[in-house]
Amino acid sequence: MILYLMDLIGVAVFAISGVLVAAHVHMDLLGGFALAALTAIGGGTLRDVLLNRHPIFWIRDARYLWVILAAAALTMVYIAFLPPPGNSLVVADALGLALFAISGAQIAEASGHSFLIVVLMGAMTGTAGGMLRDVMSARVPMIFQQDLYATAAIAGIVAYVILQKLGLPRTVAVSVGVLVILGVRVLAVVWGLHLPRLSRLG
């Protein structure tokens, strides 16, 4: 149930981030709904395909699509009358990243995969939707920008897995993993933290 709720909340906040980006680049209503859906289900779809989980989660359970439509529609109504707060995209994206990364890791873990696959699937679930959103809106994907993004997801997933191995309750491990991702992501934005750059060849 916790995993399912995390997925639904993650879908909702990523749909919101998709609408905010669509509004920023002046897409129409259809473009807004399409970008919301792509952001919300892109990472989970890629995860399910690679893990051979069929039917894909949003085909198996149409409630995901209803959550996307509701979250996108409410966001559109809101921004039609009030400007979104300046940091709303960062907050929605960070929350979606945290929830999806940990839920993706749990799904890979439940399938019996190794530590590296759990980390990879979790990070992919959390980052792929946002990357597709940014590419389709002609923006540089956040994962390729200076602020820590995928690194935040990896840190939270590693914390989650370690706490699981130490025998802590799953709810504690999940909560800590989500908080680590949120903390690293927010601190990266506020303080401008980033990984070292590759030195220029030649």
Structure description:
Its main location: membrane. This is Trimeric intracellular cation channel family protein. This protein is an all-alpha fold and 202 residues long. It has one domain. Helices cover 75% and strands 0% of the residues. The chain contains eight helices and no strands. It has helices at residues 2-24, 29-50, 57-60, 63-81, 88-110, 115-136, 150-165, 170-191. Helix 1 packs across helix 2, helix 5 packs across helix 7 (150-165) and helix 6 runs antiparallel to helix 7. The chain is globular. The protein starts with a helix and ends in an 11-residue tail after the last helix.
Give a short synopsis of this structure:
By secondary structure, the protein is mostly helical. Helices cover 75% and strands 0% of the residues. The chain contains eight helices and no strands.
- Given the C-alpha coordinates, what overall shape results? globular
Strand segment count: 0
Helix content: over 70%
- DSSP helical segment count: 8
Uncertain stretches of 5 or more adjacent residues: none
Q: Topology as H/E string?
A: HHHHHHHH
Q: Helix/strand-derived class? A: mainly alpha
Specify the biggest β-sheet: none
Distance between the termini: 54 Å
Number of individual domains: 1
Whole-number average pLDDT? 91
CA gyration radius, whole angstroms? 17 Å
Strand content: under 5%
